[in-house]
Amino acid sequence: MVLFLALSSGCVEARHGRPIVGGSVVSNPSGTISGTVTNSSGTPLEGRRVTAIATTTEQHYDATTANNGGYTIKVPPGRYRLEVELRGGDQLAQQPEQTNVNVGDVDAQMNFVIGR
To answer: DSSP letters of 8-77?
Structure first.
């Protein structure tokens, strides 16, 4: 009975958002860069590495495209240039411009088109 009361009181505290045993939440302020990688006929390209490079620090943040050609990269605030992995014979037909990312930003439609 005592164990039941102890457990149920912990559940009450948890429902009110207070930690049962210490702890804290540390925020990680970031923004998001997202887009797609397709070929020149519009077919999504899966498994391509997309890299966001901070222009001031040269820090790299990578993602790999999904089966729909989409990618999403979480980055700290800053200015970024984007690069995509090219394979034998590939040439860039379209590449996104550099972008500024602030906390909470979602810079979408940062799309690449790869031709041959």
So the answer is: HHHHHHHHTT--SS---------EEEEEEEEETTS-B-TT-EEEEEETTT--EEEEE--TTSEEEEEE-S
- Six token digits for residue 48: 């391509």
**Percentage of the chain surpassing pLDDT 70?**
77
pLDDT score for 28 = 74
**Count of Cβ atoms closer than 10 Å to residue 6 Cβ:** 9
At 51 the pLDDT is 97
pLDDT score at 22: 42
List of domains in the chain: 35-104 (2.60.40.10)
